[in-house]
């Protein structure tokens, strides 16, 4: 099925559930989203596996996540050609043209509430997908440019990820682990400001593609990485972290230095962001912009830090 046929099929699904013509919304290149009236129809990335998505849909529809994760219109995982398709209520995303209005505190409170839900209260889930996303993003890089080499070297310096649950394991009994061997918990797996909408009037989390069990500090890793790189204002970071702690968030200690839990996830996220940026610049045939240069320089700092502190070879 070519892209136009796929979009036509998504529009038909949208008309069935939303009762209106469908419009394609901008999103990342491997995903197609069509809005049709009161619903959005999502064609997941090529190669997405059905069973993990079915499990995540079942968990997201569970009452324990009501008001935290957007509940699907239908739990059924549909197909359009060779793509898996899900249907969701339409919401209003964060306005990226107005960064000062970004709902940092609301996001922090939602993540704290998500992390408080015991994994055993939900239908069984597999490991959260965040750590695997880092490796997959780096794997798409070449090794020709200095920037690509810097990102690859930083990736090889990162500690190995914690063990993850095997296929079909009940995460209430055995799960991925946080640093130090602590049991993992329910984790969004790919949280950023694009993973929130107002639906209808309250902020709520969206995107279940990486939902699972793992190190909950991972869900704070993106703002932590931006802050550590100097790309997020300290005041914004402290508002976010303070709201998370005030809401009882368990991914970091309730007070004191949070970086014992955040350092490795933030460094891994820095590598992922830099890898994605370098790959995008390569595809578009352009030099790195200022933000992308900062991310690559942050990778070099990771190499220097881990080599100095832990004796990690960098060659």
Layout of secondary structure:
Blueprint: H1 3-18, E1 22-25, E2 32-36, E3 39-43, H2 50-60, E4 78-80, E5 83-89, E6 92-93, H3 104-116, H4 130-139, H5 146-157, E7 185-187, E8 196-198, E9 203-205, E10 212-214, H6 221-228, H7 234-246, H8 259-284, H9 290-310
Antiparallel strand pairs: 1-2, 2-3, 3-5, 4-5, 6-8, 7-10, 8-9
Helix pairs in contact: 3-7, 4-8, 5-8, 5-9, 6-8, 8-9
Low-confidence parts lasting 5 or more residues at pLDDT below 50? 162-175
Query: Alpha-carbon distance between the termini?
Result: 45 Å
Helical segment count: 9
What would you call the structural class?
Answer: alpha+beta
Q: What would the average pLDDT be, to the nearest integer?
A: 90
Give the CATH architecture of the largest domain.
Alpha-Beta Complex
Structure notes:
The chain is α+β, with helices and mostly antiparallel strands and 315 residues long. The protein folds into two domains: 3-90, Phosphorylase Kinase, domain 1, CATH 3.30.200.20; 99-310, Aminoglycoside 3'-phosphotransferase, Chain: A, domain 2 (Alpha-Beta Complex). 41% of the residues lie in helices and 12% in strands. It contains nine helices and ten strands. The strands form three sheets. Strands 1-2-3-5-4 form a five-stranded antiparallel sheet. A hairpin with a 2-residue loop joins β2 (32-36) and β3. The termini are far apart. Residues 162-175 have low confidence and may be disordered.
In a few lines, what is going on in this structure?
It is built from 9 helices and 10 strands. With 315 residues, it is α+β, with helices and mostly antiparallel strands. The protein has a 5-stranded antiparallel β-sheet.
């Amino acid at each position: 099925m070519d892209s136009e046929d796929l979009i036509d099929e998504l529009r038909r699904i949208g008309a069935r559930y939303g009762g209106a013509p469908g419009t394609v919304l901008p999103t990342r290149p491997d995903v197609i989203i069509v809005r049709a009236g009161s619903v959005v129809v999502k064609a997941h990335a090529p190669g997405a596996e059905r069973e993990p998505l079915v499990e995540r849909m079942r968990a997201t529809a569970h009452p324990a996540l009501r008001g935290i994760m957007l509940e699907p219109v239908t739990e059924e995982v549909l197909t359009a050609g060779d793509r898996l398709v899900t249907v969701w209520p339409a919401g209003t995303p964060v306005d990226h043209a107005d960064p000062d209005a970004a709902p940092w505190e609301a996001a922090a409170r939602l993540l704290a509430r998500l992390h408080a839900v015991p994994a055993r209260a939900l239908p069984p889930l597999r490991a959260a997908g965040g750590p695997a996303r880092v490796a997959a993003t780096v794997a798409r890089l070449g090794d020709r440019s200095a920037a690509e080499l810097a990102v690859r070297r930083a990736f090889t310096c990162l500690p190995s990820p914690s063990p993850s649950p095997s296929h079909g394991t009940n995460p209430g009994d055995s799960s991925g682990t946080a640093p130090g061997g602590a049991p993992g918990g329910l984790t969004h797996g790919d949280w950023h400001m694009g993973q929130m909408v107002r639906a209808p009037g309250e902020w709520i989390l969206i995107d279940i593609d990486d939902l699972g069990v793992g190190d909950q500090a991972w869900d704070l890793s993106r703002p932590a990485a931006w802050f550590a790189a100097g790309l997020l204002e300290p005041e914004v970071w402290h508002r976010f972290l303070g709201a998370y702690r005030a809401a009882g968030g368990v991914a970091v200690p309730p007070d004191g230095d949070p970086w014992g839990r955040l350092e490795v996830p933030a460094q891994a996220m820095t590598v992922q962001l830099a890898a994605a940026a370098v790959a995008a610049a390569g595809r578009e045939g352009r030099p790195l912009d200022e933000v992308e240069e900062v991310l690559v320089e942050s990778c070099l700092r990771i190499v220097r830090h881990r080599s100095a502190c832990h004796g990690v070879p960098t060659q």
